[in-house]
Design brief:
CATH topology of one domain: Rhinovirus 14, subunit 4
Largest sheet: 3 strands, mixed
Order of helices and strands: EEEHHH
Number of strands: 3
């Protein structure tokens, strides 16, 4: 393989390091000069794919849906209880009591 003297270029801060490599051009997204772990700063990391933006959109939509569901629950009115067939036939007072299932014997 051919051995080149080439430069590594940071895409975030533009720092250039001359090194020897078998590849002609090397680029990195973030380096030790601008990475928050090495600098101690909590800056917003460059997000090339927009993952943070997509997450924030999903979070906002979720919160809006939860708020709308809470409003619907508050505005919902209770429907009157339907009478069972036995209550319709015999009336509420004269309806036979529902039989309980016998307990299983072990």
């Amino acid at each position: 393989p051919k051995y080149h003297t080439t430069d590594i270029v940071c895409g975030t801060c533009g720092t250039v390091w001359p090194i020897g490599s078998t590849r002609a051009n090397l680029r990195v997204n973030i380096c030790s000069n601008c990475h928050p772990f090495y600098t101690g700063e909590q800056r917003m990391i460059i997000d090339a794919e927009g993952q943070v933006d997509r997450f924030m959109k999903r979070l906002q939509v979720s919160q809006e849906r939860q708020a709308a569901a809470a409003r619907r629950r508050q505005n919902r009115t209770e429907l009157p209880r339907k009478k069972s067939l036995l209550e319709e036939i015999y009336g509420e007072e004269n309806a036979p009591a529902e039989q309980e299932e016998p307990a299983s014997q072990e």
